[in-house]
Write a structure and sequence with these properties.
This protein is mostly helical and 441 residues long. It has 17 helices and two strands.
Length: 441
Amino acid sequence: MKRTYGIREKLLLFGSIFLIMYGLFLIFHILMDMTGHDYPDGYFLFFPEDRFKDFTNINRAVENMNPYISGLSNYPPLILVMASFFSRMGDYTSYDMNSLQSAIQDKPIWHSFLLFVIIYVVAMMVICIGYFAHRMKITTKGEKLPASVLTGMILLMSAPSVFAIDRGNYILFAIIFFVLWAILEHEAPESMAGPVFAALCAGVKIYPIYVCVMYLFDRKWKKLFVCVGSFAATILLPLVFFKGSYIENLREFVSSALGFGDGSSFYFLYFNVGITGLGGYLFRMLGLHPLTELIHCAWLCAGIGLTLIAGLLMAEEKAIWKKLLIVSALMVFLTPNAYLYCSAFMLGPILIMLVGGGRFEGKDIPYVVLSALLLVPKAYHYLPDMTEAGIPLEYNTLSCAVLFDGLLYFAIIVYYLTEKIAADVVKRKRAKQSNEAKTVG
């Protein structure tokens, strides 16, 4: 009988790798600072001068409820309506794009940002503790409370989570929805609540609609319909709150959304975690300008190929935690211009993997190891800046984390495909041997 691993063993392995590797980077950061190195050496976060700027930028864009016709934002309508509540907590009228960074120093705006972060932190801790209590069949006063708190803290201090907070990006709300989606898919696979939370997540960041791939290959048509229908509602209903013509707002949003991240003209390689960043980094390692058209072609072929192959294999997958982990990894890896905070979408599936039920064998350990490595900072080296006509290129800051994160996602996906194909080959071989034995008998 194959050995199985319990929650305690999985958490111990995951936590040990995470804390050791995180600690090593912090030591590296301190050494860089002590030896006089400036940003970006020893840092894994975005440009310091842009700290929290996503928060103030979106709030300013939606302050007058005219984000699309004015061309100030291409965020989905749902999250802009949510952001409007935070924008009303401060006065952005005196700030433009050149002075917006100083807006965070305004006390009401700073307090609104703190509230924004507190909502995320409290929601994640409550979800984590509640899920532990559900799985362990204990109350929050039980002996497992320290483990649930520690797990929640690890997820919150993970590199993508800290990066999202440092940016002040509204992806924090999407992460909450995505964690709830993962839990509902695992604990109540027949419920329609899961697709609704997936749609809410996509209403903040569009690309989580990719999870519909899982419903499609599983032939769960009702879930697919609920997810797509709910997503359409998150787009169409909030538009009524914006100034100007409804049709014009819809047209401007669709136009701006399609124009962002299609990858046809330029890829933002810095702090990237997906296939486009991986491809661009390989060019930069050789001192070459990334060939955008070639990277775009590779992304398109890989996206279609991996989605089809993995989708067909996942349709036969019995371990729900594994299915959630792989579809989420595919979603992030195949998203053009996926920044470091996009890896926070893995928090929900990782929580399910560590705490959820289901058989967990020795062959599943690589998923724990790779996931732990995915969540730690890895910016140990930055490539030299590239120049054009002697002028440094924009968005030059490119660390080895772009390479490592891309390879880690690729390893998770390829390991799963290899594991499933190998298992299928063994199954067919045994079936053939069984049939031959019956024939001889």
